[in-house]
Design goal:
Length: about 525
């Protein structure tokens, strides 16, 4: 084909925004499930894994012993496990089952009896996998053994848990793990830009919606998962006029990672933040109005930041932490912050807590605002009516000094307080990463995930999360990182049924999986 002569027209550089990502990547997706239905599917798949583990030797486990006389043992064990695991997160159940499935598959290949558990078999298993699995696998296996003993009453696991050579081997492997780099907090300039983006009605509405959600996590010191579960958002303003940004905004969350006791799991955690941020603009009020304009669904069955549906509706399933982190980086990178490439969703929670630490705020106040408490604080938290009030005032003092340039948290330690150089800064901030984002800091464990999927296919009877007509007539594809199961749509092998292009992010499976969980719904309609 002949090419046209003459000078080439200039190529315009179009910034990649969250709006464009949503339009291209999520615009073809229309998920019908509510959030609760999505979580229920994950739970059913996890129960199926544990039923297969228990039925390997029912007498090893308390629930198996109690169901031994049942006429339909599979059904009885399934129901018993559902009650045993009441209050446990589906993700935790999957994580604990994975290493055990791999051990069962390994033992069967060697014609060993895997259960009741023998320490020497577990030791040989870890030795075999020492060089081919992630450094954290041994630690994950030991956590699974402890889970079986203390939750499922598997007493034969006690010997392995007490084994010095087993715990030592798991520890030695873990020490080979890549040193964790904490996600950095956002800078003051980044937070100001997000606030101004939300109130800029000329900018893209989807970008503004996402920016407001990230600001909510910043000022509420919320993990991504806690922010998604927020509901009952309200304004708390003083009766007398004290300025347009005086007061607070607050909400309640139920799916919080720090809820361990039964009482805390059944209580809503209140989260409160100041209305006046670092840019002194009414971002929260504007964001709430934007949510109404965009008809964002509300309620316990909907996340605070939903995915966008194909026909302009909103999905009941939230974007993953990985996707949301990409949105945060995309918003800021497109607006002049290339250093945003290091950010993650946990950066939002860390931001104001980091500022308070550098400012020298009392550790108790920082702990309260981070929704943590020390054992000695128990009675205070039970009887205190509004224990967050003094800590919240400390945060407001920090924000006020940032606004007037008296405190500069993004400089070196010697420059935090330019008008008071003799002032001693606080310690460097150190916080644990969010579980929802821990995988972002892990080694590339795709090989481990493949091994776990292969073990599930060997141990678990055929099972599918969604009904599939003539399942053997399809070519199955997995996303390399999310491990979502898709299927091809055309003979050209370059397009998936959901409309996505079959790129290098996907891998073709040699055969249909026997255990079909994490099925991408739009590919199996």
């Amino acid at each position: 084909m002949a090419r046209a002569s003459g000078p080439m027209p200039p190529v315009m550089s179009v910034p990649v925004t969250v709006a464009s990502v949503v339009k291209l990547a999520l615009g073809r997706v229309r998920l019908q499930d509510s959030w609760s239905e999505h979580l229920d599917k994950k739970l059913r798949a996890a129960i199926q894994k544990w039923v297969s583990i228990v039925l390997e030797d029912p007498l090893t486990f308390d629930v198996g012993r109690r169901c031994a006389a049942a006429s339909c043992q599979d059904s009885a064990v399934s129901q018993g496990l559902l009650h045993t695991f009441s209050g446990k997160a589906a993700g935790t159940l999957h994580n604990r089952a994975g290493p055990l499935l791999r051990f069962l598959a390994w033992a069967k290949k060697r014609r060993l009896q895997p259960l009741p558990l023998r320490e020497k078999d577990v030791y040989e298993f870890l030795l075999d996998l020492e060089d081919s699995s992630a450094p954290s696998f041994g630690k994950a296996l030991m956590s699974s053994l402890a889970f079986c003993k203390f939750v499922l009453g598997a007493e034969s696991f006690s010997d392995s848990l007490c084994s010095g050579r087993l715990t030592g081997l798991a520890r030695a492997s873990f020490l080979k793990k890549r040193k964790r780099r904490q996600k950095p907090p956002l800078t003051v300039a980044m937070v100001k830009r997000l606030e101004r983006l939300v109130v800029d009605e000329s900018d893209n509405d989807v970008d503004r919606l996402c920016a407001g959600f990230f600001l909510l996590c910043i000022y509420l010191r919320a993990r991504y998962s806690d922010g998604q579960a927020l509901m009952n958002l309200v304004l708390d303003e003083p009766d007398s006029f004290m300025g347009p940004l005086a007061g607070y905004f607050q909400g309640e969350t139920s799916r919080t990672k720090t809820s361990f006791s039964l009482e805390r799991k059944t209580a809503l955690l209140p989260m409160v933040g100041p209305l006046c941020g670092v840019a002194s603009v009414p971002w929260f009020r504007t964001w709430m109005s934007l949510r109404e304009d965009l008809a964002i669904p509300e309620g316990e069955d909907f996340p605070l930041l939903p995915s966008r549906g194909q026909e302009g509706g909103w999905s009941g399933v939230p974007p993953t932490a990985t996707v949301a982190a990409g949105w945060l980086r995309g918003i800021l990178s497109a607006r002049g912050f290339p250093e945003a490439s290091k950010l993650g969703t946990h950066s939002c929670k860390a931001t104001t807590l980091s500022w308070m630490s550098k400012y020298g705020v009392d550790a108790l106040h920082r702990r309260i605002l981070g929704y943590h408490k020390a054992p000695q604080d128990e009675m205070m938290h039970i009887y205190g009516r509004d224990n967050v009030a003094p800590a919240l005032r400390s945060l407001e003092y920090v924000l006020a000094d940032i606004r007037i340039g008296k405190f500069l948290p993004d400089t070196t330690r010697s420059g935090y307080f330019p008008t008071d150089p003799e002032r001693e800064p606080g310690p460097e901030f150190n916080d644990e990463p969010s579980a929802s984002e821990a995988s972002l800091d892990e080694e590339d464990n795709v090989q481990d995930l493949r091994a776990e999927e292969a073990a599930a296919d060997e141990i678990i009877p055929p099972w599918a999360e969604l009904s599939v007509g003539d399942p053997d007539a399809h070519v199955y594809i997995r996303h390399i990182t999310s491990r979502k199961l898709h299927r091809l749509a055309d003979e050209g092998r370059n397009r998936l049924r959901c409309g996505k292009r079959c790129s290098k992010k996907f891998e073709r499976l040699a055969e249909r999986p026997r255990f079909m969980a994490d099925m991408y719904q739009n590919c199996f309609k």
